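anyone seen this seq b4? input:
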Amino acid sequence: MSTDTLTISTQPVAKSRISELDFNNIEFGKIFSDHMLVADFKDGAWQSPQIVPYGNMSLSPATSAIHYGQAIFEGMKAYRSADGDILLFRPYDNFKRLNISADRMCIPEIPEEIFMQGLEQLLRVDAAWVPPTAGSALYIRPFMFATDDFIGVRPSSNYRFTIFSCPVAAYYSAPVKVAIETNYVRSAEGGAGYAKAAGNYGAALYPAKKMQEKGYQQLIWTDAKEHKYIEESGTMNVMFVIDGVLITPSVSSTILAGITRDSVLQVARDMGYKVEERKVSVAEIVEAHKAGTLQEAFGTGTAATIAQIATIYYNGEDMDLPAVEGREISNRVAQELDRIKTGQAPDPYNWVYRISL
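predicted toks r here
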């Protein structure tokens, strides 16, 4: 299917709901934009996508995704530039990663023209929903799921691809307290940890809830075999600054290859900081804290970009980290990334996809 021949029909809403939105007081993930993109896979091919009013979907009780978990998603953001254009951050990387997840979950890959042309056309229709306020963005959720009405453990023959969006403010309003998890696991070698599969997140809710009841907003996941090595933090990649060196676990079959993670590392390297991607042991973090060389810890992800960690709980003790205001690397990198995303700084990496209105 060529981008020259792809036709995406649009059914506009009768009346926009944007009057319900206060751009200065946005709750994350609560109010959704007027339209959504929908495309179905049937008879062995993706059918022509459509843009329709945002609304509920009618599904059979036997819909296979509900029973067997064939569901994947992505998360990305659009920003408003000073001249009024819409700026997407690394959308092609989200497209590629969605198809990596699709392959792992036996879902047919989505063609680039449906993803990119559909995304751009959807954003043009809902352009008014991209917040003009500093620190806000339009969060975009592409997802795919199995739609066979069949009870039986096998890959579905039919699927739905959808993109919808919601305006958002900051994900975390303050630095978070996290706990190192030494019992439950997020992912094991040979599993689907590297995919953005819905089941990965569902299985993480229980251990996260247990620690939230003790006052910790998120977990730091460790390896499934020995619980000796750090993997991710909550729904984000995790990074540490020890004695001036930015350190993060290497991506693997158990760790999601984060787009924000990659961006942070690239910008940090170009700023002249030493960066190490390698195994990071829990013992190394504990020892660095005791020695006073653990200077920074933070998560990286689309929702928060950089989420500062104030305290790490392990083995019955809280390890409090230096004040966020004095953290050099994460603050500098976060500021530069925000400037690139919003068009306030040059984009030497060709990360920004501009939609001129």
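The radius of gyration is 21 Å. The mean pLDDT is 96. kinda curious what u guys think
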